[in-house]
């Protein structure tokens, strides 16, 4: 990667399919410069995960993803022993006359170690992008493991000793804020809050992601989404929904939203994901929203 | 990896360092948690060539120094105030000075009461009415506190007029909440026994026996914490109770991450961040500032609607207990309150409604709002004195 300034980075990201605002581009630049992880917070569907994907594409490196969930522990996230093989190996040595110590040494060696995402991430030759997705879903104890890894980029395995990073990955953490994260973790990270994009940025995102979409329509869609998000909805649609919807509209040959009110209403299923929301956005409301669109 | 080149030729001037230190201090004053690491990184940034314009510096520092959304959103103000000499909008100074004053008074209060930090076990055992028999002994600091607890346990908060007594009731409510919190957490840890095999340990042990897993080692189930979401009515009709309730809530929340608190009146205010302040008086101070500007009657329905719409998805999960502290006097429509309660009920595990008026003789929940809300409430309990608050614990424990 040869990005030197924020602007060239933003440009390169756009090339990789992610339209970043200034603050985010700067934060990403800093992750590289200061070797700090970046914590991205924001509502579901604003494109936090996409940042990591774009970054990996841009760096032309692997994306290693750890999806967090309640109950996630060391053995799911860092490493685990291959028990079946260990058992077989112990059985196979039964008649060999080896003493217990030798067997133990053999069985707890690299050969029987299963890498999980975090260990895999620090053992790559080329630094990957490590995405720790929805870290707020993991338990508090898990944060402590993460801290060890993120501050020293090493993992200690009692049977093997400390494994140090071959290359330091770029780490992106995302959080939807379902649980308050510890100050220790927050302090370790750079921070950026990802908001819903404004219409012009959302239009640019659409143009970069949806083929055959023309600029005027992209802007109309983006503006309509902006209004829609201000409505009283149970599940506010994210950027991914907008992209689906734009693709649907293009697929149906829509050129101008005002001329195709019915199509607009019929395709709103792409963005409204609960029964209440679908009931709330009636044809009349759709007309009203469309009326506001320039 | 480090393709961004750091220039390390000449050192930063002393003036810049001093300015930076001042900035870090002003960030800390505004509640940012900034350590040495961030400051060192800030120096690296200032040395580098990626920052050529103040706007860039602001963006970079924002990413570096912010830890949460609230830090992130107010960063521009703090930055501009320090580096560009623009006035800060927030009342940092005012709150700082007043809190210092009140901190002193609470310290005096604590000093007057005896040793400031009793052991937790001591607190737990002294849940009012449980242990301490009235005693003829000359009251030592500890005994005195306990007997006051005893006496205060049954007194309705609205009947406590002596400011000193009231302050003690506040303090006890908070201690009680802390004790409850600690017990709830401990209960989780003690349950760690269960049916899952711990293969790793089993195999490790089996080596000594030639690989035959004779002794099976088991793993407990993942323990899951209960989350509390508290909605506190701060309207005029509750004024006799809000003081003690906020202390109670602060006690429950302090340093307990699985909890969120909201205050409502005519609108809803998220106050968890204020209550996460360690010092009780300072927390209440901050909360008071956040709640300013709300007044008039209580619109419980509207406040709940706001909660359901903007916060519920984030703060509620399947093991959440929602605790509403309110007298149920609602100036909104009962229908809306009922609808919103139904919506809330779908999301969470339990709804507890604490109503101080239940403790009054002859009280019946006849108001329209209360009637509409009741079908959706799992526990409708009094909360007019310390005893009634303490009685909640067994219920919470069962959740």
TrEMBL record, chain A:
GO terms for molecular function: ATP binding; ATP hydrolysis activity. InterPro entries: AAA+_ATPase (IPR003593), ATPase_dyneun-rel_AAA (IPR011704), CbbQ/NirQ/NorQ/GpvN (IPR050764), P-loop_NTPase (IPR027417). CDD domains: AAA. Residues 34-200 form the AAA+ ATPase domain. It comes from the Bacteria. Pfam families: AAA_5 (PF07728). SUPFAM superfamilies: P-loop containing nucleoside triphosphate hydrolases. PANTHER family: MAGNESIUM-CHELATASE SUBUNIT CHLD (PTHR42759:SF1), MOXR FAMILY PROTEIN (PTHR42759). This is MoxR-like ATPase.
TrEMBL record, chain B:
It comes from the Bacteria. Residues 110-145 are annotated as: Disordered. Pfam families: VWA_CoxE (PF05762). CDD domains: vWFA. This is VWFA domain-containing protein. It comes from Roseibium alexandrii (strain DSM 17067 / NCIMB 14079 / DFL-11).
């Amino acid at each position: 990667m040869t990005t030197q300034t924020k602007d060239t980075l933003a440009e390169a990201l756009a090339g990789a399919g992610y339209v970043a605002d200034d603050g985010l581009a700067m934060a990403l630049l800093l992750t590289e410069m200061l070797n700090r992880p970046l914590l991205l917070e924001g509502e579901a569907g604003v494109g936090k995960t996409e940042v990591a994907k774009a970054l990996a594409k841009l760096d032309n490196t692997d994306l290693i993803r750890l999806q967090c969930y309640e109950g996630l522990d060391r053995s799911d996230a860092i490493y685990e022993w291959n028990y079946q093989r260990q058992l077989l190996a112990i059985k196979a040595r039964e008649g060999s006359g080896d003493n217990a110590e030798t067997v133990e040494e053999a069985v707890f060696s690299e050969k029987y170690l299963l890498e999980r995402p975090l260990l895999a991430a620090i053992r790559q030759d080329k630094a990957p992008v490590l995405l720790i997705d929805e870290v707020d879903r993991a338990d508090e104890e898990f944060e402590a493991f993460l801290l060890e890894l993120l501050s020293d980029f090493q993992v200690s395995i009692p049977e093997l000793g400390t494994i140090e990073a071959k290359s330091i990955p770029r780490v992106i953490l995302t959080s939807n804020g379902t649980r308050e994260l510890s100050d220790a973790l927050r302090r370790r990270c750079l921070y950026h809050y990802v908001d819903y994009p404004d219409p012009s940025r959302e239009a640019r995102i659409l143009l970069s992601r949806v083929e055959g979409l023309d600029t005027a329509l992209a802007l109309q869609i983006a503006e309509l989404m902006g209004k829609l998000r201000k409505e009283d909805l149970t599940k506010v649609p994210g950027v991914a929904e907008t992209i689906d919807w734009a693709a649907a509209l293009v697929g149906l040959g829509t050129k101008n939203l005002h001329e195709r009110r019915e199509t607009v209403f019929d395709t709103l299923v792409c963005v409204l994901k609960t029964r209440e929301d679908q009931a709330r956005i009636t044809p009349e409301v759709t007309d009203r929203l469309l009326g506001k669109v320039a | 990896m480090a393709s961004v080149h750091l220039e390390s030729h000449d050192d930063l001037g002393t003036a810049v360092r001093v300015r930076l230190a001042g900035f870090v201090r002003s960030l800390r004053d505004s509640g940012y948690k900034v350590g040495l690491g961030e400051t060192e990184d800030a120096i690296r940034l200032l040395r580098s060539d990626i920052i050529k314009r103040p706007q860039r510096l602001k963006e970079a520092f924002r990413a570096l120094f912010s830890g949460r959304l609230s830090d992130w959103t107010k960063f521009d103000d703090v930055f501009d105030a320090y580096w560009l000499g623009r006035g800060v909008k927030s009342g940092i100074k005012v709150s700082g000075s007043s809190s210092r004053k009140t901190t002193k008074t609470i310290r005096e209060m604590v000093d007057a009461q005896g040793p400031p930090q009793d052991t937790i076990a001591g607190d737990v055992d002294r849940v009012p009415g449980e242990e301490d028999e009235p005693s003829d002994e000359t009251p030592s600091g500890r005994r005195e506190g306990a007997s006051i607890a005893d006496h205060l346990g049954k007194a309705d908060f609205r009947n406590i007029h002596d400011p000193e007594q009231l302050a003690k009731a506040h303090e006890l409510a908070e201690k009680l909440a802390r004790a409850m919190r600690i017990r709830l957490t401990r209960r989780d840890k003690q349950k760690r026994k269960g049916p899952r095999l711990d293969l790793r340990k089993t195999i490790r042990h089996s080596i000594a026996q030639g690989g035959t897993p004779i002794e099976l080692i088991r793993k407990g189930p993942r323990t899951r914490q209960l989350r509390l979401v508290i909605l506190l009515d701060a309207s005029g009709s509750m004024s006799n109770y809000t003081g003690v309730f906020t202390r109670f809530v602060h006690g429950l929340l302090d340093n307990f991450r699985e909890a969120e608190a909201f205050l409502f009146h005519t609108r809803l205010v998220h106050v968890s961040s204020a209550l996460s302040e360690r010092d009780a008086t300072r927390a209440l101070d901050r909360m008071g500032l956040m709640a300013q500007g709300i007044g008039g009657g209580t619109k419980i329905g509207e406040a709940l609607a706001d909660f359901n719409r903007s916060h519920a998805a984030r703060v509620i999960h399947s093991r959440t207990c929602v605790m509403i502290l309110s007298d149920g006097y609602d100036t909104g429509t009962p229908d809306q309150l009922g609808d919103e309660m139904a919506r809330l009920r779908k999301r969470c595990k339990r709804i507890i409604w604490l109503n101080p008026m239940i403790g009054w003789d002859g009280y019946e929940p006849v108001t329209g709002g209360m009637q509409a809300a009741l079908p959706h409430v799992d526990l409708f309990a009094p909360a007019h004195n310390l005893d009634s608050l303490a009685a909640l614990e067994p219920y919470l424990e069962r959740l």
